[in-house]
């Protein structure tokens, strides 16, 4: 860990706990800051707050009102989920108090070479592929992952050394709070229209994503998907060396697929069909990872070994088990239409789809082609069930069932399926109308499948 004095003696307010805030607070204390933690969850129910209080930090629980700032703070580290338009942040900005995030803090103390991955979809899978490739057959140091993948960057940054590589998954929420964040290799998997309730406009969302490369120089690398004209144009904003990837063979300057084979700058890597995780979107993720690995000099054999054995990340087109001729997949992380479309396109067998969730004001007409081509029957739940049912009817799906939740959807899906079919949870919506997060929703799906089949989830 770099020994910095930036926060020594400074009064720092950490807004919001969870894993990122908890670890940021502990790091700040180690750096000599006077730390106050504010979290909306009551102290009696808040284990993290209790632990920080016992460690000597000031803890304030309850509503985060603007008068919290009356104590006078030099810096605010906010949870990524707290938007900038809440009153306390607006007041902080008027008072010229710097507002930053846990990822920025982590990058300030990080000694390892930094690789950062963002995108609307595919971030976690790509991050994991890259980490595995960079760690494969490594003789010095290790490759670690952290960030939005579920491992706090501020914790891992204290542990890695200059011999290591830190691969971070970074969301738009995290990126918008960065100022000096500077990865040696930055990756954008794709950019669609996500989180507009947070960013307000697509232009703001895209600008947040592009902050991943804003501090890069000609000594760095910017790996970006070239399969969309907008993304190709965005690449021109970077001062780094652009290394493109394309599943549509639109460039051969980086990683690309041609006639079913994955290449890097003319070198054949492996057939696309040998990538273990299903779907064209995972071929794109593999190409992004290949580009990073080749920049770092990883051998083709090591890349092949990872892509032929890596079975996917939990909740992301995750193979659960096979029973009675049916394959069950958990894609609970598909919280938008694009992710579900990609998942459906990854299967050649008929799909019985489980979908639905939080109503964010979207309609689903754009899903009609994917429904027509891939969905045999659909089981719907949550706030968007009726909207999705209308879309399914327009797509010509004959079998449409409505049910209470994911747990009750599983036995219905079984009865609507036949041997050889895919039973896929890919909701196309956030989970918050019924579940705390997509992980809980996916876990409930897995438990329901295990209960139905009498088999255990495959490792």
Automatic annotation (TrEMBL):
Pathway: Cell wall biogenesis; peptidoglycan biosynthesis. Its EC number is 6.3.2.9. It comes from the Bacteria. One of its GO terms (cellular component) is cytoplasm. GO terms for molecular function: ATP binding; UDP-N-acetylmuramoylalanine-D-glutamate ligase activity. CDD domains: AdoMet_MTases (cd02440). Its main location: cytoplasm. It is an enzyme of class 6 (ligase). It holds the Pfam family MurD-like_N. ATP binds at residues 119-125. It is found in: Cytoplasm. Residues 117-293 form the Mur ligase central domain. Residues 315-428 form the Mur ligase C-terminal domain. It catalyses: UDP-N-acetyl-alpha-D-muramoyl-L-alanine + D-glutamate + ATP = UDP-N-acetyl-alpha-D-muramoyl-L-alanyl-D-glutamate + ADP + phosphate + H(+). Keywords: ATP-binding, Cell cycle, Cell division, Cell shape, Cell wall biogenesis/degradation, Cytoplasm, Ligase, Nucleotide-binding, Peptidoglycan synthesis. GO terms for biological process: cell division; cell wall organization; peptidoglycan biosynthetic process; regulation of cell shape. Cell wall formation. Catalyzes the addition of glutamate to the nucleotide precursor UDP-N-acetylmuramoyl-L-alanine (UMA). Belongs to the MurCDEF family. NCBIfam families: murD. This is UDP-N-acetylmuramoylalanine--D-glutamate ligase. It comes from Candidatus Levilactobacillus faecigallinarum.
């Amino acid at each position: 860990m770099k020994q910095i004095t930036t926060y020594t003696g400074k009064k720092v307010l950490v807004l919001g706990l969870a894993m990122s805030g908890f670890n940021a607070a502990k790091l700040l204390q180690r750096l000599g800051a006077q730390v106050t933690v504010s979290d909306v969850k009551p102290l009696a129910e808040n284990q993290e707050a209790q632990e920080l209080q016992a460690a000597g930090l000031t803890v304030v629980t309850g509503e985060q009102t603007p008068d919290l700032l009356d104590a006078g703070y030099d810096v605010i580290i906010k949870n990524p989920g707290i938007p900038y338009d809440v009153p306390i942040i607006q007041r902080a900005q008027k008072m010229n108090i710097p507002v930053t995030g846990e990822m920025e803090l982590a990058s300030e103390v990080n000694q390892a070479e930094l690789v950062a991955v963002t995108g609307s979809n595919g971030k976690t899978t790509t991050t994991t592929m890259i980490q595995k490739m960079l760690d494969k057959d490594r003789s010095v140091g290790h490759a670690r992952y952290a960030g939005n993948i579920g491992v706090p960057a501020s914790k891992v940054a204290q542990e890695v050394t200059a011999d290591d590589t830190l691969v971070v998954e970074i969301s738009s929420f995290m990126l918008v709070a960065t100022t000096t964040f500077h990865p040696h290799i930055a990756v954008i998997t794709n950019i669609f229209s996500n989180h507009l309730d947070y960013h307000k406009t697509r232009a703001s969302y895209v600008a947040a994503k592009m902050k991943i490369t804003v501090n890069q120089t000609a000594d760095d690398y910017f790996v970006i998907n070239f399969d969309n004209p907008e993304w190709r144009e965005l690449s021109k904003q970077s001062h780094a060396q652009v290394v493109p990837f394309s599943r549509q063979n639109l460039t051969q300057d980086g990683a690309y697929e041609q006639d079913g084979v994955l290449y890097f700058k003319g070198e054949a890597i492996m057939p696309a069909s040998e990538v273990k995780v299903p779907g064209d979107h995972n071929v794109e993720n593999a190409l992004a990872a290949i580009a990073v690995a080749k920049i770092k000099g990883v051998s083709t054999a090591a890349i092949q070994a990872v892509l032929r054995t890596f079975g996917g990340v939990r909740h992301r087109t995750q193979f659960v088990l096979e029973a009675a001729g049916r394959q069950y997949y958990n894609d609970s992380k598909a919280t938008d239409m694009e992710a579900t479309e990609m998942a459906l396109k990854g299967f050649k067998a008929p799909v019985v789809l489980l979908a639905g969730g939080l109503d964010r004001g979207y309609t689903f007409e754009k899903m009609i082609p994917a429904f027509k081509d891939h969905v045999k029957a659909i089981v719907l739940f949550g706030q968007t069930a009726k909207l999705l049912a209308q879309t399914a009817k327009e797509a010509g799906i004959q079998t449409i069932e409505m049910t209470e939740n994911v747990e009750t959807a599983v036995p219905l899906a079984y009865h609507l399926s036949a041997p050889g079919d895919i039973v896929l949870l890919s909701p196309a919506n956030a989970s918050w109308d019924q579940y705390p997060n997509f992980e809980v929703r996916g876990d409930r799906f897995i438990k329901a499948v295990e209960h139905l089949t009498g088999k255990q989830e495959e490792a």
